[in-house]
Amino acid sequence: MGLQNVITGLGGVAVQSVINGFGTIFVAGFTAANKLYGLLETAAVSYSYAVVSFVMLTFARLILSCFLSGEESVLAQTLEIGFAFLKILSAFFWLLYLLYIVRACVQGMGNTLLPMCSSFLQLVMRVGCAFFLTKKIGQMGVFWGEVCAWLLADVFLCFCLLWVYSRQFRMRKRT
């Protein structure tokens, strides 16, 4: 997927060089529309990740076995642990997709500090679950830490989005 993004980026640079030749008004209009397009594209990318997640979970043991080697009994146990983690993640990937979309919205509205704060909250939640939730529910606490981190960041960023939007709305109303 990384190479795919590089190819797309190179295409964007080539197209931008042509767009620049049409003048500043065209560039401004195109750029404004492109910002909205970026938000809509984030949703489309999230849907594609959902499909990837479904396919991945369907073939999870086979895919996981590509990353593992060793004694058959140890390999079977390792695959079960990996599969258990993927089952939990796949049920809650929609939280991750929401996180990407809301984070992009807040960033697109010009605020980069709040999304960075959400990343810090995710870190705190993952570490907290690793240290404390594992004492209550064992190894599964590490798995659930990922989901809890997404949920905390989602809640934080949804409030941030409302705050940033209402602030911009009030500023526009004054002018």
- Find the count of extended strands (DSSP E, 2+ residues): 0
Considering DSSP H and I runs of 4 or more, what fraction of the residues is helical? over 70%
Output mean pLDDT. Answer: 85
* Poorly predicted residue ranges: none
Main beta sheet: strand number and arrangement? none
Number of domains: 1
Order of helices and strands: HHHHHH
User: What value does the Rg take, in angstroms?
Assistant: 21 Å
- How many alpha or pi helices? 6
Structural class: mainly alpha
Question: End-to-end span in angstroms?
Answer: 44 Å
Beta-strand content: under 5%
Globular, elongated, flat, extended or rod-shaped: what is the shape?
Answer: flat
Brief rundown of the structure:
The chain is mainly α.
Element layout with pairings:
Layout (H helix, E strand, L loop, with lengths): L1 H18 L4 H35 L1 H6 L6 H37 L4 H25 L2 H35 L1
Descriptive overview:
- Helices cover 89% and strands 0% of the residues.
- It is mostly helical and 175 residues long.
- It is flat, with a radius of gyration of 21 Å.
- 10% of the residues are buried.
